[in-house]
Design brief:
490 residues; 26 helices; elongated
């Protein structure tokens, strides 16, 4: 064993002095397979946790967004909304544009299974809606077909939008068949009223695609109502309410709902709240919940709290939690994190509390939480906020080795000035070999060569001593090089 450690030291010294060289052959039997799996699992869980917070509608996923960026984006969204709500300038414009609802925070776009990465139902559904907005009807129909194949939560909505796209292509029979399948397979769907209106339009069109002119007329009508809302809200409100109650297209209803949300009068709030409670199709309910969160206010948040308390659908509850985050409502998020029976929703609430820098609340919540997954989410949030003291305490007092590993791993991503000495102290009192290995990896991540040297000098276990030397051989520092030379001279 002493000869092997000297070989490692010699190799590390050669790398430090001459750059990269060919490494010596590895040991015949891998000794660190299980710990490496543990680390990979922790990293994968952290990646999944970060992805859950992403609210950008991108074609690829990006990692852990900085909270300041997220806050700036929310402020930009609100600034855009207020700008759209401002009075229209008397200066003539070449072509007015209708109000467009802001892009909502989105759920994770990618699901990871044993077979690897694939698009989630939400991503396919949203992508189909984007194609509809761009009037790329064929592509939209293809995306909604993929949702239908999965037979998941949004299948009824996918049948409706597939029929909508087919009607634009002039495929009357196929559009009617899609609507018939919606009514047959989902007799209790909240899309049935919209489906009846679309069915009547398709039959009236006689197989000819609905004219673009009629769409433009709808858009211009909504723009006129939006302008009227700024000058004479009392006249505009009944017109918007009529659009929402009659057989207007769902896209037009969505935009009308947005105009109402901007107004923020008691009557407008009442209409938006009605849709948030489920007074329309699920897509409009999601929009209404989002708008209540964006505009905030005591009344809107109280409405969201009441809906959350009576909701049975986890997807709706998750959207409401996200709206609480947008509105910076820490109290309701904390209440959900404490009392929600669904552990997945408690984890979401914890992640959103982390986005709002509610670290004292999360620290207290850790002591009462029972779910391992939720505790890991709290550890990740505390790590994102550089709460070294609380993580050190968890690493010292937590009885579960898995959670100690998670806390120690996050400590390794923090400044060595705050955490190197406590990590060494943890190492000296720790009995679990995997935890000791993770402490050394965390010290290595910080570049804490001096502390690893101290561990290597005192360690009597040959395999742990070898791990310390291996970590030092990869650190380009004077302390590491001096220790390697010392080993070679023995």
């Amino acid at each position: 064993m002493k000869i092997f450690i000297r070989q490692i030291a010699a190799f590390g010294l050669a790398v430090a002095c001459f750059g990269q060289v060919e490494p010596p052959p590895p040991p015949a039997a891998p000794m660190f397979y299980q710990k490496d799996l543990d680390e990979m699992r922790i990293r994968a869980q952290e990646a999944a946790s970060r992805m859950a917070n992403i609210d950008l509608d991108l074609d690829i996923k990006i990692g852990d967004l900085d909270q300041r960026v997220y806050t700036a984006m929310q402020k930009a969204k609100q600034a855009m909304l207020y700008a759209q709500a401002a009075p229209v300038s008397p200066k003539p414009a070449p072509m007015p544009r209708p109000a467009v609802a802001p892009m909502p925070p989105m759920p994770p776009d990618v699901v990871y299974t044993k077979r690897g990465r694939h698009d989630s139902e939400d991503r396919l559904y949203r992508r189909g809606a984007e194609y509809l907005d761009r009037r790329e009807w064929e592509k939209a129909v293809d995306e909604f077909d993929k949702v239908i194949e999965r037979k998941a939560a949004k299948t009824d909505g996918a049948y409706y939008w597939k029929a909508y796209g087919l009607s634009k292509l002039g495929r009357r029979d196929q559009a009617l068949a899609s609507l018939a399948e919606l009514k047959k397979s989902y007799p209790g769907s909240r899309w049935l009223n919209d489906a009846k209106a679309l069915e009547a339009e398709v039959q009236q069109a006689g197989g000819q695609g609905l004219s673009p002119e009629s769409e433009n007329d709808e858009d211009l009508k909504l723009f006129a109502i939006n302008s009227l809302m700024n000058s004479d809200p009392e006249r505009a409100l009944p017109l918007l309410e009529k659009i929402l109650q009659k057989s207007s297209s769902p896209k037009l209803k969505e935009r009308a709902l947005f105009v109402l949300a901007q107004n923020r009068s008691s009557k407008s709030n009442e209409i938006v709240a009605q849709f948030a409670r489920g007074g329309g199709n699920p897509d409009l309910q999601q929009k209404a919940v989002e708008y209540l969160g964006i505009y905030g206010g005591k009344e809107n948040l109280q409405t969201l709290g009441e809906i959350y308390g009576s909701a049975g659908d986890a997807g709706l509850k998750r959207n409401i939690l996200r709206s609480f985050m947008v509105a910076h409502d820490k109290d309701r998020l904390l209440n959900a994190a404490k009392s929600e029976p669904n552990a997945d929703l408690r984890r979401d609430a914890v992640q959103y509390l982390g986005n709002l820098n509610a670290y004292p609340e999360l620290s207290q919540l850790y002591t009462t939480e029972q779910s391992m997954e939720v505790k890991e989410a709290i550890i990740n949030s505390l790590g994102n906020g550089n709460n070294a003291d609380r993580l050190i305490e968890i690493a010292k007092t937590e009885k579960d080795p898995k959670l100690r590993l998670a806390a120690i791993h996050r400590l390794g991503n923090m400044s060595r000035s705050k955490t190197a000495e406590p990590l060494v102290s943890l190492y000296q009192s720790e009995q679990d070999r995997n935890v000791k290995e993770q402490i050394m990896r965390s010290l290595f991540n910080q570049g804490s060569a001096k502390e690893i040297v101290d561990i290597a000098r005192k360690e009597t276990d040959p395999s742990l001593k070898r791990s310390a030397v291996q970590n030092l051989s990869r650190l380009n520092s004077k302390e590491a090089t001096d220790f390697l030379v010392e080993l070679l001279n023995k």
